[in-house]
Amino acid sequence: MIVSGSASQTLAAALAAELGEELAPVEYDRFPDGELLAAVPDFAAERAIVVASTVSSDAHLELLQLQDAAREAGAEEVVTVLPYMGYGRQDDAFEAGQPVSARAVARAISTGADRVLTVNPHESDVRRFFEPTAEAIDAAGRLAEPLPAGLVDPVFLAPDAGATELAGTVRDGYGTGDVDHFEKRRRSGTDVEVTPSDVDVAGRDVVVVDDIVATGSTMSEAIEHLEEPGRVFVACVHPLFVRNARVKLSRAGVETIYGTDTVEGPASAVSAAPAIADRLRQ
Ligand code: R5P
């Protein structure tokens, strides 16, 4: 049975359809003091596949409750799918006294799961914080599908070196184009400095590819360095879009943003369900 977190209902339903598995009834409630109560009344299956993007602290807590509720209801195996792993970018103590938050949340999730699947985690290494080590699924393969046909001499551009492989995956999916990357230095949570490469984008269509768009600072900074490009598109796995990210990208000249449903919203045109289902069938 597929058990959905409240932030992943569309993806959970798509996954249930892909696998031909039942979608468990779920209830998301809250006590008067604000404490959450997520429940799975009438859960009846040997395996629970809990699908929950941890896009907020509440979503984290809700996931722990759903894992526990499924076990209480008799599930012998709990498989947790983290379409988007919150706190995944806090994978180190960057300054003295800081926690390794990714490790802390991974440990908590691991206590209630027999197997954890992550979708395009920001750093693959974060998987080792889970016990057993989490599996990584690549949902970027289909990001090229909604791109318009006939892009002019396209460039698939990563705003930093770390996203180059992802840009290559989207280019391969599209079938033609160059791959290039800029360099990025983050000054703060919202302030980044991007150093462009010498790629000539004049008159060429550009698809800027990254794993996450959060504040949109990385993307908009990268786009500012494009000199006389043709059309500009954004493709990302996790369209988190916090604060004024959309406005920033529109003001930067982005025509369309394509993301997956690991984070559900208006830009989630591509479903990660087929990639997750493929892994679960193995
Ligand atoms: C970081 O290296 C990630 O790959 C993304 O570039 C980053 O998370 C995007 O964040 P923002 O949209 O806030 O710049």
Explain what the structure shows.
By secondary structure, the chain is α/β, with parallel strands linked by helices. It folds into two domains: 2-138 and 272-280, Rossmann fold (3-Layer(aba) Sandwich), CATH 3.40.50; 140-261, Rossmann fold (3-Layer(aba) Sandwich), CATH 3.40.50. It contains seven helices and 14 strands. A five-stranded parallel beta sheet has the order 1-4-5-6-7, with helices on both faces. The two termini are 17 Å apart. Bound molecules: ribose-5-phosphate. Residues 122, 160, 162-163, 192, 210-218 line the site of ribose-5-phosphate. Ribose-5-phosphate (R5P) binds next to strand 12 and helix 5.
Topology:
Elements (H helix, E strand, L loop, with lengths): L1 E3 L4 H11 L7 E4 L5 E4 L7 E5 L5 H16 L4 E6 L18 H10 L4 E5 L15 E3 L17 E4 L5 H11 L3 E4 L1 E4 L5 E4 L10 E8 L3 H8 L7 E8 L5 H7 L4 E3 L14 H9 L1
Parallel strand pairs: 1-4, 4-5, 5-6, 6-7, 8-9, 8-12, 12-13, 13-14
Antiparallel strand pairs: 2-3, 10-11
